[in-house]
Amino acid sequence: ADVLKIIEAAKAEGMTSEQEEGIRQIAADAQVRLVVELSNLLKLEAADFDITEDQFNDLKAIQTFQDTEAYISTAVYDFSTVTEVTGTGVTGEVEETTASI
Predict the structure, then answer these.
(1) What is the mean pLDDT of residues 31-57?
(2) What percent of the chain stands above pLDDT 70?
(3) What are the backbone angles phi and psi of residue 97, rounded to the nearest 5°?
(4) CA–CA separation, 90 vs 94, rounded Å?
(5) Going by DSSP bridges, is the β-strand pair 94-100/81-88 parallel, antiparallel, or unpaired?
């Protein structure tokens, strides 16, 4: 899905200031996380981003997606297994499909 189109449609329908701030925070967190992960993966340094070493260290120290991580750490997950008879095979054997939800 085209995320920008989804956001534009939501804005057109009307967004609260809280929703707009949430989108802004997610975008900022994503950009910071991308730069940090790329710098680790590609062994990039401050000069590669045309910033000072202090700015680079400050950027790497930013805690991202704190709200999401807090939610995930306290969320309760209820997984169950569902088995469904989908028919019989050529030999008359029962075929089952099992899905974990």
Answers:
(1) 95
(2) 77
(3) -115, 130
(4) 10
(5) antiparallel
